[in-house]
Amino acid sequence: MIQPILKEGERIDGLPSQKINIIQNPDMFSYSLDAVLLAHFADVKGKGTGLTVDIGAGTGAVGLFYAPKVTGKLALVEIQPELADMAKRSIAMNELTQRVSVIESDMKAIFEDIQPGSVETVLSNPPYFPLNETTKTNHDKHYQLARHELTIDLPGLAQVVNKLLKNNGKFYMVHRPDRLADIFAAFASRKLMIKRIQFVYGKANREANMVLIEAIKSGRPGGVRIMPPIIAYTSENNYTKAVSDILYGTSWS
């Protein structure tokens, strides 16, 4: 690891199982367990030599955690300059500059940099909350953009993904279970066929608070697989063995 120069308020957090470290600033935005679980959930298509794009990448956590699983190039797309800068420095810190790059752009405008229909795999941990008359957005601009659909909504996201992917390319996303109806509608209208779903529960006997989704561009309808659930914490508020293995163990192989 190349030791970076940190700016005021920044720190380095890491994923020991992947030997990847991320620069972030908690006052702006910090990745959480959803980013780790998405990178773990995302499969490798073929030999992993194709282009992967992480849209709405933030500080780059999802793409960088996924990077050791593949040998091809990755592009991290992020609209916020401060977060894009942290992602660039994290790439250098992890010595991945030959394979991983940052595109500082609104995801709807990335086709100047990425050819439509050229991407093997798309990853996304998008804003979870729709905008409506009752929406209470966070006052911090970084969290507003990361958490609320200010610049793109689910149909817009699905349209970008459809345009990026090759036929039979795969899209992996983490979102909230209460948005499933919106997700299904948005994906179906953009020829993204959902093939695998995994629910994440904070604790046993509680409602799911995350959902991991795999979809295929122009895939055949039907054949959706519901994977065994992930329970994040024990009753003593420790990580369960399943999550501990993802964070610290060998479950990525």
Write a short abstract of this structure:
By secondary structure, the chain is α/β, with parallel strands linked by helices. It is 25% helix and 26% strand. Helix 5 (154-164) crosses helix 6 (180-189).
Q: Per the principal axes of the C-alpha atoms, what is the gross shape?
A: globular
Helix-strand pattern, N to C?
Answer: EEHEHEHEEHHEHEEEEH
Radius of gyration: 17 Å
* Major sheet description: 9 strands, mixed
Low-confidence stretches: none
Question: Could you tell me the number of beta strands?
Answer: 11
Secondary structure tally, helices: 7
Level of helix content? 25-40%
Mean pLDDT value: 90
Structural class: alpha/beta
State which percent range the strand residues make up.
25-35%
Helix and strand layout, with pairings?
Elements: E1 11-15, E2 20-24, H1 33-41, E3 52-55, H2 61-66, E4 74-78, H3 81-93, E5 100-104, E6 119-124, H4 141-147, H5 154-164, E7 165-175, H6 180-189, E8 192-201, E9 208-217, E10 225-226, E11 230-231, H7 241-248
Parallel strand pairs: 3-4, 3-6, 4-5, 6-7, 8-10, 8-11
Antiparallel strand pairs: 1-2, 7-9, 8-9
Helix pairs in contact: 5-6
Would you write up a description of this structure?
The protein is α/β, with parallel strands linked by helices and 253 residues long. It contains seven helices and eleven strands. It has helices at 33-41, 61-66, 81-93, 141-147, 154-164, 180-189, 241-248, and strands at residues 11-15, 20-24, 52-55, 74-78, 100-104, 119-124, 165-175, 192-201, 208-217, 225-226, 230-231. Helix 5 packs across helix 6. The chain is globular and about 50 Å long. The two termini are 22 Å apart.
